[in-house]
Amino acid sequence: MRAVMIGVGATLVAEFSWLLYVFAAFLIATGIKMLVVKDAEPDVSKNPLIRFMRSRFNVTDSHHGERFFVKQAHPQTGKMVWFITPLFMALVLIEVADVIFAVDSVPAIFAITTDPFIVYTSNIFAILGLRALYFALAAMIHRFKYLKPALAIVLVFIGSKIFVADMLGLEKFPAALSLGITFAIIASGVAWSLLKTRAKPQPSS
């Protein structure tokens, strides 16, 4: 799925170079939204995708092991029909979340390089690294309170540097300067988070 999106993105950028500015504007808008909108506990039952699946398909209220589909009697007609399980609905939500994540990450990497090989391999390493570090990050996330604003600022910076390079008449924003600024922003967010949360105990699960 990610490869398809990268392939389409690379083809579009090669044919229409002005799309890089669209990607850059999208990143800036996403970063500003992350800074402005406050986090809230989502109500999964009100998710539009969940509501759509419940309105279009038969859905069981209980889990059935590792099965995605089960055949059982319909509560109204009594006929044996196929039902989808909550496990299948969770799978659909995860896949949709991955697409939404790609909508952010793919434009971000295209704002840095348009080489499809680098774009694809960097996405692979990012996904593998995040999955491997998930449990470590989940246990330490309470210490990184200000990491989200730092990442939002990074998105704004990555998007804005395309416009800045054009304003300064540069072919490309200097890679060393870009890496240094990105590192400084993330390091500042992590350091400030650790400083502000050092006296706070880890919340009990």
Word description of this protein:
By secondary structure, this protein is mostly helical. The protein has one domain (2-197). Helix content is 66%, strand content 5%. It has helices spanning 2-15, 19-36, 48-56, 86-110, 116-140, 147-167, 175-197, and strands at residues 69-73, 80-84. It has a two-stranded antiparallel ribbon with strand order 1-2. β1 (69-73) and β2 form a beta hairpin. α1 (2-15) packs across α5 (116-140) and α6 runs antiparallel to α7 (175-197). The longest helix is centred in the middle third of the chain and has 25 residues, at 86-110.
Features:
205 residues, mainly alpha, two-stranded antiparallel ribbon, 7 helices, 2 strands, Integral_membrane_TerC_rswitch, transmembrane
